[in-house]
Amino acid sequence: MNLRSLMLLLCLGNAAFAQADTTEMLSVKEKQQSPASLTAPQNNLPEEFINRLKEAESGDVDAMLDIGLVYMDGTDYLPVDSTKAFTWFKKASDIGNTDGDYYLGLLAQNQQKYEEAARWYRQGAEQGDAYCQYGLGFLYERGLGVKQDYKQAKAWYSEAAEQGQSYGQFALGMFYHDGLGGDVDYKKAREWYEESAQQGVASAVNNLAVLYENGEGVEQDEERAINLYRQAANMGSATAQNNMGDFYYEGHRLIEKNDYQAIYWYKRAALQGNSDAQFAMGRGYEKGNGIGKDLVSAFDWYRQGADNGSAPAAMKVAEFYEQGLGGVKADHNKAIEWYMSMADDGIPEAQIKLAELYLAGQLSDVDSQKVVSWLLASEKSNVQSKNQLALFYLTGTGVQQNEQKARELLQQSAFKDVSDAQNNLAVMYATGLGGEKNIFRAMMWFERAAKAGNSAAIANLKLLQEHQGVTASMLKYTDNVQKLIKK
């Protein structure tokens, strides 16, 4: 089980970016927080706010930042006002305060004005502000407002980390872990994760667990890894919570399988927006594992996961539309829209599904060449793509018919235990289609497919075993191929 999740830090405001899973969100400002009195709901404007505003107008830089924060975030007594927030942060910046630069960059980033964000972060970073250095590194890592440059990102993260900025330490550890902007160095990754973890960054604790689980730069120690995952989960890391859910869902030699515990951890992660956990919650409700079966709730969680970028969840949403499950009215066109969107994004499972629908005659508005191009792009790394592509060559759908090529692809899929491919390959051996005729190999593949429960193979094997004089033409491909042949 690979539980590694190297979260790309989503530590700047509300910007939604993720490399794998989002687990840690840096509060709007760790360097400076508005006084509690400024955020307490009171009638009209609280006296404390009015007094703080007067101090800001008198030139108190901390008060300027406090007032800017109130306008940036909004409160029960003041709505969000980005223009006024900018004005107060700019006043602080104009008198040389780098906190003002940081907040101006954060404000711009939250508005997706990345070039402007980069200018403000750079202004503070070049004056040595660790938070601005981290922010600039983040933009370089993602290529937001600047050209993506891992070496520049690493350099700025390093500047921030050396000053003790906890998220800069985590990011630098991640860069050493993955070899971004330089070579992989597990020892340095561990050192920076530990520095960050000591300051309470749960993501760093999670990634320390990864090192110990995989034995990367340390002696492999699964027990310590699980303890660290649990620690990170209790600290609030959504990725670690999802990891704990996986342990309990799948079972481990050190953790007994427990669906109820799995749901407990998945739900904690899902409520934080972790898309893998949201998919897991949908699965739990769909199957009734660890929680009552409820297809409506299953669809709701699948939809949340899909909206947050989970391809498995999006596949489930499409399936629910296709079959009319979970209180959703069956809508073939809506299902196709979901599958098409994922296919265009390069999701092999969606491409395979559309290939199946095309061969079944349920996808008339899509060019066969497009479907074939999807399968060609993924067949080397995805055995189901290979199996589907074989059927296109076998039937001459969207490509020039090539029975030899079809047989080669089916054989490759059969060796990967795709039972449909095993049955269809057996028929080709029995008939001599696409190559030599060999009844012994045909029997071998029928037996392997039948052992896997393939209904077509079971019928073919029974026919061969119970009747004499069976001819190759009497043997049947899987139903989807038979329908294509009849056309």
Automatic annotation (TrEMBL):
Keywords, ordered alphabetically: Signal
InterPro entries: Sel1-like, Sel1_AlgK, TPR-like_helical_dom_sf
One Pfam family per UniProt: Sel1
Signal keyword on record: yes
The UniProt record lists the keyword Ribonucleoprotein: no
Residues making up the signal peptide according to the UniProt record: 1-20
Protein name (Swiss-Prot/TrEMBL): SEL1-like repeat protein
